[in-house]
Amino acid sequence: MLSSKTKYDCKSKDKIDAIDLEIVRCLSRDCRASYRDISTVVSITPNAIKERINKLVCNGIIQSFIVNVNPGLFGYEK
Fold it and tell me: How many domains does the chain have?
């Protein structure tokens, strides 16, 4: 999570543009995708991807990054 000393104003809701939407699509397919991987899809620098993801998190657009596991592999019934 971002620290309380973030440079973004989390109270202001910025509009989501096409680049933000594509970033969210990339993360929804693979929440572990690197900034570099996402930057090749979106065609902006990895640093710009990092800044945009931080802002999306700060503004509550991205609320969490989740990993789903198969409970059967841990000995639990589905």
Answer: 1
